[in-house]
Amino acid sequence: MRVYLAGPEVFLADRDDIAAAKKAICAEHGMVGVFPTDPAPQVPPAETNWMQIYLGNEAHIHGCDALIANLTPFRGASADPGTAYELGFMRALGRPVLGYSNAAGNFTTRSLGLLRGAVHRRASGAWEDADGMEVEDFGLTDNLMLDGGIAASGGVLVVNPIAEAARWRDLNAFTRCVAHLAAMKR
Amino acid sequence: MRVYLAGPEVFLADRDDIAAAKKAICAEHGMVGVFPTDPAPQVPPAETNWMQIYLGNEAHIHGCDALIANLTPFRGASADPGTAYELGFMRALGRPVLGYSNAAGNFTTRSLGLLRGAVHRRASGAWEDADGMEVEDFGLTDNLMLDGGIAASGGVLVVNPIAEAARWRDLNAFTRCVAHLAAMKR
């Protein structure tokens, strides 16, 4: 089984080390991990570097049997939007999607924290921000579409709060996702 | 043609008015707009309200021929993560995806603005934030996966900066997406 390793680690300077560590954990469970920056499968030549990266990632996802997403909040209350995009993409292909977050709290508490009191209650009791946007309050890890896609596919969303200094490199929650995926496939 | 109307307007108190306005624009172009909060198609009963919403949105997307996403940045430098998820989902189905943003700037300039100087240059010249995460610098509207999916599908990403007070309700960029979609289908 090939597993696409989605997440914002692609933005880290030591991403190759993280890719190798994730692939080693996959291998221990009899799987092949595919990192976004791996040499891309054959794709049509694109006019720009970014489009070549995009088409490579699409081809990687098509060539994998499942996806594990690092949904640790990225510069805000939510996961990296590219990772959210890839999660939806793989779910639409009907294959298992799993996720993990190394941050504490849920989407509601993190959103309210970042809004720093610039919220008020509607008559319904719901919180809304200064733009008049409701703060989703289902007690989920992220926007309900992300949690929902994982649940609908039979996956798992592991939350394992880690101190900030180690948040982007701790792989315990990731390992639990790999083990869950291995058990799903038995 | 049925068009799924993705975007964070679902969080606004007057979302029904916005849904009606978007649907009217679709109708003028011979299309049927489908808003996330429309009565859901038949889906299996879920144990929770949020899962029922999720499954309804999935069914809506499956039942549409194209998607137009409001990618105006939502509480940060990027689009709402639920919208990013839906964009990826529809792209994976191989149907046209289009998007618009009513905010100025690109992903790089917005990210650097929100990071408020807590960045430094790598030896390569790339910006990275305090977590060591590179700031994507392709001059795109959002994370390259979002821009890439739209381009790969033959869609268009319309950027039309609007003053903050009207940002969530101005439909000029949306209308341009509808017109583009109508032209694609001729």
Please describe what this structure looks like.
The first copy, chain A, is of the alpha/beta class and 186 residues long. Chain A contains six helices and seven strands, in the order βαβαβαβαββαβα. The first copy, chain A, has helices spanning 15-28, 49-62, 81-92, 107-115, 144-152, 172-184, and strands spanning 2-6, 32-34, 66-70, 97-101, 119-121, 127-129, 157-159. In chain A, strands 2-1-3-4-7 form a five-stranded parallel β-sheet, sandwiched between helices. Chain A has a two-stranded antiparallel ribbon with strand order 5-6. The longest helix of chain A has 14 residues, at 15-28. Chain A is globular. At the A-B interface, helix 2, helix 3, helix 4 and helix 5 of A face helix 2, helix 3, helix 4 and helix 5 of B.
Task: Tell me how many strands of chain A there are.
Answer: 7
Mean pLDDT of chain A: 96
The computed structural class of chain A is: alpha/beta
Largest pleated sheet of chain A: 5 strands, parallel
Q: Which two chains touch over the largest interface?
A: A-B, 60 and 59 residues
What gyration radius of chain A follows from the Cα positions, in whole Å? 17 Å
What's the N-to-C terminus distance of chain A? 12 Å
Succession of helices and strands of chain A? EHEHEHEHEEHEH
Oligomer: homodimer
Could you give the order of strands across the largest sheet of chain A? 2-1-3-4-7
Which word captures the global form of chain A?
globular
Percent strand of chain A equals 5-15%
